[in-house]
Amino acid sequence: MGGTALALEVTDLTAGYGPVRALREVSVEVPEGAVVTVLGGNGAGKSTLLRAISRTLPFHGGAVTGGTVRFGGRPLDGLATDRVVAAGVSQVPEGRQVFARMTVEDNLRAGTLGARGDRAAKAAALRRVHELFPVLAERARQQAGLLSGGEQQMLAVGRALMASPRLLLLDEPSLGLAPLMAARIADTVREINAQGTAVLLVEQNAALALRLASRAYVLEVGRVTLSGPAAELAASDEIRRRYLGVADEDEPTGRPDPDGNATKPARRPALARWEETR
Ligand SMILES: Nc1ncnc2c1ncn2[C@@H]1O[C@H](COP(=O)(O)OP(=O)(O)OP(=O)(O)O)[C@@H](O)[C@H]1O
Questions:
Q1: DSSP line for 186-253
Q2: In the chain, how long is the greatest CA-to-CA distance?
Q3: Bridge partners (DSSP) listed for residue 215
Q4: Neighbours of 262 (CB within 10 A)
Q5: Full set of structural domains in the chain with CATH
Q6: For atom 16 of ligand 1, which residue has the closest CA?
Q7: How far is ligand 1, taken at its centre, from the CA of residue 43, in Å?
Q8: For labelling alongside 221, which of 40, 101, 239, 254 has CA 20 to 30 A away?
Q9: Tens digit of pLDDT for each residue in 102-124?
Q10: Where is this region: Disordered (predicted)?
Q11: pLDDT band at 247 (very low <50, low <70, confident <90, very high)
């Protein structure tokens, strides 16, 4: 968990796609070494935020039209994507997007393009990725497109880690995965963070994200509508009702009864459901 030093400082960021305004004066901070999450429904602007930070928005036909992004005190504005990677920020895009016809090892090698560090640093990064995801070592010569969905997500995360980032931008890592696989990915995010990498996690699965993060932001139609410590947001009625699938009149305290059972099993919060898979 971070102290007061900020790794990432996004200030009043406005961005869009032609006439579509996807982000309006969004400000987000990630302290050094922290996990911070951005929650929000479909189309809220979560992916756009990550693309604006990694400067990949132009590849999607979008542009930043206002505000600043600073990393480690230095502005990222105007940098090419590979310079952002070199500055220590790597993104795992939504939908994994591994190179399906390339081997697993070549996908990982692609992650070192633009990265800082010499051969020894890249070899160390590969060892770290193989320790986190042994299956990527076992399947090194296999075509990436033949991996399962969960394994492809591991590959996408592994590829981003090959650049030894100080900040990992993670776009919906649990999307389309079975609960057990999502929980495994969550464990890995925790481990990556414990090794010193800060994480900005975009998720629709609020239960999972709030368990991982120390701080959370809620994005609605391009604006930050709520932010605070993740534990506080997880306890708030508004978040519980809208993002954790709990109706406050049913479970005013949200606490299980003394036997540890939720009081209304049929309406158990998503948070409890996720914990059961672990
Ligand atoms: N490449 C694009 N071209 C035009 N409009 C886009 C593009 N990508 C996203 N948008 C629009 O920008 C807005 C924000 O989309 P964005 O993908 O950032 O939201 P999101 O919160 O990541 O949603 P989801 O969880 O569904 O991916 C939406 O109105 C969306 O339709």
A1: HHHHHHHHHTT-EEEEEES-HHHHHHH-SEEEEEETTEEEEEEEHHHHHH-HHHHHHTS---TTT-SS
A2: 58
A3: 36, 229
A4: 17
A5: 6-88+165-176+194-246 (3.40.50.300), 96-164 (no CATH)
A6: 45
A7: 5
A8: 254
A9: 999 999 999 988 777 788 888 99
A10: 244-278
A11: low
Q: Which two tokens stand for residue 93?
A: 């895009």
CA R_g for the chain: 19
Determine the length of the chain: 278
ipTM of the complex: 0.96
pLDDT tens digits, residue range 173-190? 988 888 888 898 999 999
Q: Which two tokens stand for residue 117?
A: 């560090």
Binding pocket residue ranges, ligand 1, CB within 6 Å: 17, 20, 22, 40, 42-48, 60-61, 94, 204
Exposure letters 222-255 (e unless 16+ CB within 10 A, then b): bebebbeebeebbebeebbebbbebeeeebeebe
Residue that has been written with the tokens 């997880």 in this structure? 234
Token code pair at residue 23:
């982000």
Residue type, 60: H
